[in-house]
Design brief:
- The protein is an alpha+beta fold and about 675 residues long.
- Helices cover about 60% and strands about 10% of the residues.
- It contains 26 helices and 12 strands.
- The strands form 3 sheets. Strands 3, 4, 5, 8 and 9 form a 5-stranded antiparallel beta sheet that branches.
- Strand 4 and strand 5 form a beta hairpin.
- The protein starts with a helix and ends with a strand.
Length: about 675
């Protein structure tokens, strides 16, 4: 189901390809704030292979996430230098974030491939920098990745700033190395400036973008937006005040990163330590710089917009960087600890038990002293101190220090997992809600030539009904919509046979209410184990069947079998030719000069004996607990439906009413049990 910006980005390119008029300017043209050159090339390739099945765009998004995961794990192994258990725990936490469902808007919206491109390019570039490639090859590969990042999404330009420090510190072993590579750095600066000039050439500020003035007029709101942006991957799941929670979590993240960064700056002369950490520092700055840019550019939309699922793909990499920086810094701190200082630290603990010990006493004396101090305490206090004594007896002072750190880390990991679980459950609910809205949009799009439902199209597809209607008919002609649009109000065009052993639902009743009718029932799709995406209402005029059959038989009697057979063969040949033209969407056929079947009057069906579509009910699901008990299946809970329809949709006379369950994915309808008869008098 193409959604929102996808209708503005790609369909016009498909039409231009069919007209052989696609140009370089079309590929590099500005879309919102970005120049999506490389995503457009990917989308065009996928559209050519799949006839614009947007699920393959989602697959590419997942593949890019896998690439990021591999890059992060490789950097983990090269820089953290931990044992297998620690490496595995860090990799698990990182992947929980990389594949977090809190990014649901980006996972299930094909055009959001663009937000995954920059971080995929940046992590790949950093991974290449830590490899054994020649320095010149590293520069060349990183330049290409930064160009791809720049012309994929607006914040992709950050890659030039993020990658260069890593490239400098990791490849250069001394100041003399930097001087030898000055031409490489100068070429890097020249290429980056050239890219920025090309990017902003003829740049137009999008009309829907808010003004930058509020960001500077209300700096406190900009700060809150910045922190909420960074904390949203873990804070959005709170049911009560998710904005406040995200701001607090974002503040904690910035606080932890600032402490780590200051510590590393104090040890800047330790080249080996800085080479291990510079990659993670710049990945963290990718999230921080993205948050700053977005806060300045989007605070005009309100603070709540900072919690958008689309932004989490940028912000979560600060948390990932912190997860990897912590063990590196802790291991460095541990290596700097003096054993005598450790004993002094333990001495201060035992002093609290009224025992004075020498800072230079041996391990046995320390343990015995602590035991004596605890044994002299009252019985109630001894119960409290027993675990401490047992802990001291099991190791020396260094073991005690390391285990206290381990305890803090364990508490931090547990807290992060709890926050992640909350965001996970929240995201699953949002995914289900988005799925239902997409199916609703897909349904009203399928019937756009039959039923006019502007609100459905403008809320679930794109806020321009006439533009969408014109565009989808052109795309339908090119064979790029799945399923095809419904082009006849005769239900037989989409009717499908029901399987005898499966229940699809029933039309329970239709009650006249002056000029309105109240209809209700239930509808289910057994093959998908889901409630129907929509309910199609049809009517059939009673008392006309025999008359129509007589007219049809009389007409058939005036034609010879040979003439009739020739006419049928001619019609079949025309259909095959039309189908061939439609499939050849990349050819020279122009979609602007065709005559749609709707214009030929197919909608005004002459076969009055058939079921005629007069309304399509969407978002009419109501809970029916009796169905859950009847079929012993919780999926039937929302299979009920009820709605009031206007009598103006029906012709006058004696009518038979039937309902159908519609499957938006296949474009097929299944007749529900039980028909109802009504008699409509007058024009209302």
């Amino acid at each position: 189901m193409p959604y929102w910006d996808q209708w503005n980005l790609m369909p016009q390119l498909f039409i231009k390809i069919s007209q052989n008029s696609l140009s370089w300017q079309d590929l590099i043209a500005q879309h919102n704030e970005s120049r999506k050159l490389f995503p457009r090339l990917i989308f065009l390739g996928l559209a050519y292979l799949t006839n614009w099945d947007v699920r393959y765009e989602m697959l590419v998004i997942f593949m890019l996430a896998c690439l990021v995961s591999v890059n992060i794990y490789r950097l983990n192994r090269l820089t953290v230098n931990a044992n297998l258990l620690t490496t595995s725990v860090i990799a698990l936490l990182a992947n929980l974030l990389i594949f977090s469902p809190i990014q649901y808007d980006n996972w299930f919206w094909g055009i959001q491939l663009v937000v995954m491109m920059p971080i995929a390019c940046i992590t790949t570039a950093i991974s290449v920098i830590y490899s054994y490639f020649n320095t010149r090859y590293k520069f060349l590969i990183c330049m290409m990745l930064c160009i791809i990042s720049t012309f994929s999404y607006s914040n992709g330009m950050i890659a030039w700033v993020i990658v260069l420090p890593v490239l400098t510190l990791v490849t250069a072993k001394s100041t003399s190395d930097l001087l030898k590579q000055k031409w490489l750095f100068l070429s890097w600066i020249a290429v980056s400036i050239s890219n920025i000039i090309i990017y902003f050439y003829d740049y137009q500020k999008p009309k829907l973008s808010p003004s930058l003035i509020p960001a500077f007029r209300h700096p406190e709101q900009t700060l809150h937006f910045f922190l909420a942006f960074l904390g949203s991957p873990l804070g959005s799941g709170f049911e009560i005040s998710p904005l406040t929670s995200s701001i607090f979590i974002g503040g904690v993240e910035i606080g932890i990163f600032s402490c780590l960064f200051i510590y590393l700056l104090k040890h800047i002369k330790n080249l080996h330590l800085f080479q291990r950490t510079i990659g993670w520092i710049m990945i963290a700055f990718y999230s921080i710089i993205s948050a700053l840019i977005t806060a300045v550019g989007r605070v005009g939309f309100g603070l709540e917009s900072a919690l958008s699922s689309k932004y989490t793909t940028f912000s979560l990499y600060l948390i990932i960087a912190i997860i990897h920086l912590l063990p590196i810094v802790f291991s460095h701190i541990s290596s700097q600890i003096n054993p005598r200082k450790s004993q002094v630290w333990l001495h201060k603990i035992t002093e609290k038990f009224r025992y004075k010990a020498s800072p230079f006493m041996d391990k046995k004396a320390v343990v015995n002293g602590a035991s004596l101090a605890i044994s002299n305490r009252p019985r109630e206090e001894k119960k409290f101190f027993d675990p401490i004594l047992l802990f001291i007896r099991r190791g020396n002072s260094k073991f005690l220090i390391l285990n206290s750190k381990f305890l803090k880390v364990a508490i931090a990991i547990t807290g992060a997992m709890i926050l992640h679980y909350q965001s996970f459950t929240y995201s699953v609910k949002e995914i289900k809600s988005s799925y239902q809205l997409r199916m609703e949009g897909k349904t009203c799009l399928s019937f756009i030539n039959i039923i006019e439902n502007k609100s459905c199209v403008e809320e679930n597809i794109l806020a321009s009904y006439d533009y969408v209607k014109d565009l989808v008919n052109k795309l339908n002609y090119l064979g790029m919509l799945k399923p095809n649009l419904v082009t006849s109000n005769n239900i037989k065009a989409i009717a499908n046979k029901k399987q005898k052993d499966k229940n699809y639902g029933s039309l329970d009743g239709i009650i006249p209410l002056n000029s309105w009718y109240f209809v209700n029932g239930w509808a289910f799709l057994p093959d998908r184990n889901e409630p129907a995406d929509a309910i199609i209402l049809t009517y059939k005029k009673e008392g006309r069947r025999k008359k129509e059959e007589g007219i049809r038989n009389k007409r058939m009697g005036t034609q010879t079998p040979t003439n009739e057979e020739g006419r049928r063969n001619k019609e079949e040949g025309g259909k095959k030719k039309e189908e061939g033209i439609r499939k050849k969407w990349m050819g020279t056929q122009t979609p602007t000069n065709y005559k749609h079947p709707v214009d030929d009057g197919v909608l005004n069906s002459k076969e009055k004996d058939d079921w005629i579509i007069f309304d399509v009910l969407m978002s009419a699901q109501t809970p029916r607990e009796n169905l859950v008990q009847l079929f012993n299946n919780p999926a039937y809970l929302n299979a009920g439906w009820e709605q009031t329809i206007s009598g103006k949709l029906l012709p006058k006379g004696k009518l038979k009413i039937a309902a159908w369950a519609f499957d938006a994915k296949s474009g097929k309808a299944y007749k529900l049990d039980t028909n109802h008869q009504i008699i409509k008098n007058g024009s209302i």
